[in-house]
Amino acid sequence: MGKGINKEELMSLLFSGVLEEDIALMQKILDFDDTVIFRRFENRHNPKIRGCVIFTEVLVNNLVIDQNIVKPLLDFLPSDEMPGDGLSASLAARVVSTDEVKTQSRPFDAVTSILIGDTVVLIDTCPDAIVANSKKYALRGIGVPETENAVNGPKEGFCELIVTNIGLVRRKVKNPNLKFRFFEVGKQSRTRVCLSYIEGLCEDRIVEKMIERLSDFEIDSVLDVNYVEELMTENPNALFKTMGKTERPDVVAAKLFEGRAALLVDGTPYALTVPFLFVENFQANEDYYESFYFASFVRILRFLSFFIAVSLPGLYVALLSYHKEMIPKNLLVSIAASRAAVPFPAAVEMFILLLLFDLLREAGVRLPKAIGVTVSTVGAIVLGQSIVSANIVSPEMIIIVASCGIASFLTPKLEESIALLRLVFLLLSATLGIYGYAAAVIAMTSYISSLESFGVPFCAYTIPQSREGAKDVYIRAPWQRMKKRPYAIQKRNKTRLRRK
After folding, report:
1. Rounded to whole angstroms, how far apart are CA atoms 370 and 390?
2. CA–CA separation, 105 vs 457, rounded Å?
3. Which residues lie below 8 Å from residue 67, measured CB to CB, with a gap of 6+?
């Protein structure tokens, strides 16, 4: 943190109270950082009261520093009541007029405050520095969620500033039991992380486990919520995510009301929620903002689309390669005629098309929007038509892969898992036929059943154990019937709806 000063040595240092020595120490710590401003001052009425204002010009509101910190320190009239040894505390209480003011005795804490946008004031003869809030971040405002679009319901999404995100959650959860606990992760980035939960609803074991895992790891930098997710998850090699991820404050609020905990990371417009269950991949916030009939219909479609996206390529190849007798005669004749000039086996043909589909999808996502739409359209029409005309693949294969692609769009939370799983299904089906397909289904089901999310089985509610537990899984029951919170998560305060 400074030339010739390591972190351990810096943490043990204290301000001396001699202004020039303290300024020299801060300059040594912040050496070669030209964005840090040192502004000396003397009180107009008593020149013996002098000091230095230190701040980072790219992170502060200059008007606040001028009007609420520097000007009051220059103009205040000292009185005999102001103690000499406690002058910094007296100035913080009576003179500096920002919304948050405190004193610090360690240079390490003062430097940390400067680097997050606060202003530090050193006063001669005072062994404590005044720290005043003067933050001003150049960040985008609250916008519409990009990855969780909804026709009905709130349109606001998280931004990169953690304070703003906390405000969005607090506005929806007006409960004094809503708690926010801050942590600092990343030895170099020193990123702020906020753990949020409703005391009395969230199980103590979940909160304790999250605090324990946040304290378990040391990493140089944390720049995105995914860093924390991978480090905190119970099984970092899991194919399915066991921590929820959302950019919608209303989703976080709904999870908190169910007894879950949320994790907000400074610098990223997403929040993590735990515990996270497999069935939540098929639930959407809009399910609760529209008719339960339509919401139930769409949710069933999502479950079907997952199995179509994962297994349809493998099942088609298994039937075409090993079990032709299971295909209707007329359809088999049509498929055979279209494949007569294709030089590749069905499995190779399917693999080529799936690879091309993933290439086009990535190109559409990574390129600018205007170009991405063009690439996707041209690739789908021109490339698809060309490879069929060149007899590289058959038209039926195009239909199968297109159906898979459309089905995968219904469950965007599982997009990464689907891309890998369908290759596993394809490999086993191409090798062992329908038996390989069955083995893949059994293996996937067993794997999902083996996972946990903060002590809760990942597959909870997949097979509901009670009538109450089935009301928000494959269908969404009316609110009048969903009187209980999820029993696998909330065990103390189960009732969420009562008749007056």
Report:
1. 29
2. 48
3. none
